[in-house]
Amino acid sequence: MNTRPLVVITTRLPPQVCGIGTYSWLLHQHWPGDVSSAQFLAVDGAIESAAELDFPNVTEFNANPAKLSRALDRIGAADLLLHYAGRAYHRYGCPIWLPSVLVRWRAKFRSTRLLVFFHELPGNLPVTSRHYWIDMCNRRVIRKLSKIADAVVTNTSEHAKKLEQISGRADIHWLPVPSNIPATAMSSAPRVRTEFVIFGLPFGRWQTLQLFDAEIRSWQESGHLTRVHLIGPRDQKFDARSDQLINGWRNPNIVMRHGMLPAADISKLVTRAQFGLSNATVENWSKSTVFMAFASHGCAVVSKTRSETAPLRFAVTPDEVATMSDVDLGERTKTLRQWYEQHAHWNVIARKISALFPDKVTQTAVV
Fold it and tell me: Tens of pLDDT along 353-362?
């Protein structure tokens, strides 16, 4: 029987706005077994998060190696899940101190097990880029973390290939990211066929508006679109760019700018509207929480990406928005939702990630 506590090193937990922090908390909520004694070591905001989540076991370490080391020593032997993104633990994306802290802890407590989830990876930048050497540093950190980890997981097949190249490991796992909007407002009421949803971060919303600008104009002219719900945090730069596109439409007043909303309110809107516009591609759909929110709510995903493999083959093309019957549309969204429940639901993903912890403790590598 495993008596080691689960320890999660993460970024910033709710109520702070951070995708990785939210992911780590929702994963914990669906983790198999009793995890009431789990410990969260977050970069900051521990007091606010403990109060908001009604979970006292949150400690902040302020991206400080000494504080993290003391917190790990206080806990002792544990199963550790590290949610990694370079900029989460270092201003410029190169926390060179992190592997050595974990090596020292594992050497002190031999029965520990370490799993690293890489949420983000460095890009392929030219040597002339001012970020080139920072990314090289980040690659070195990633290589060291991969070397000392018992298991490594990420969120796209492209990331898995890149991790193999960086780390030299051949046993990289990848799993899709579930929806961070619980389907709490599901209803049997018919959807509004002419209502569309665009949500996410400001850049993603602007990118999606750009992608579908011509189609939105056409749908509006033909009467197939009467309302667009824009949901997500505001940003002066990208909101101005989005407004410039919107103001070129025949009737800009069809747009409802909701800003930030509680998850329950987003669920209501995604349950009400028939279509969700997505900029997901073959390379990144598996890390798109927006795509997964549409899928989990049975909201038809409109995508310009064509694929013969699931789940993108269950999306709706822009041409089908106006031509697909309600019956066929219902079947398409039902199939997509079934795929989500079987392959990307939090219970499924939490079970698969927890199973990556090895049955036996391995020797910690020295880096």
Answer: 999 998 866 5
pLDDT digits (tens, 9 = 90+) for 263-302: 999 999 999 999 999 999 999 999 999 999 999 999 999 9
How many CB atoms are closer than 10 A to CB 40? 24
Q: HEC string of 150-208?
A: CEEEECCHHHHHHHHHHHCCCCEEECCCCCCCCCCCCCCCCCEEEEEEEECCHHHHHHH
- Per-residue pLDDT band for 2 (boundaries 50, 70, 90) equals low
Task: Choose among 263, 242, 279, 228: nearest CA to 17.
Answer: 263
Q: Rounded to the nearest 5°, which phi and psi values hold at 44? A: -160, 180
pTM for this one?
0.94
Q: How far is CA 37 from CA 4, 28, 272, in A?
A: 10, 11, 38
Cβ atoms of residues 344 and 178 within 8 Å = yes
Place of tokens 């400001």: 202
Least confident stretch, 125-129, 278-282, 292-296, 341-345: 125-129
- Residue bearing tokens 């079934």: 338
Residue type, 34: D
| Cα R_g (the chain), whole angstroms | 22
Paired sense of beta strands 172-174 and 79-84, if any: unpaired
Which has the closest alpha carbon to 60: 89, 92, 85, 30? Answer: 89
Q: What is the DSSP letter of 4?
A: P
Both tokens of residue 101?
């802290």
**SS3 of the chain: helix, strand, coil, percent, to 5:** 45, 15, 40
Taking residues 152-168, what's their average pLDDT?
A: 97
Q: What is the pLDDT of residue 3?
A: 73
Strand-pairing partners, residue 42, are 10, 60
What's the one-letter identity of residue 321?
V
Helix axes 326-343, 289-297, angle to 10 degrees: 120
CA 44 to chain CA centroid, Å, is 20
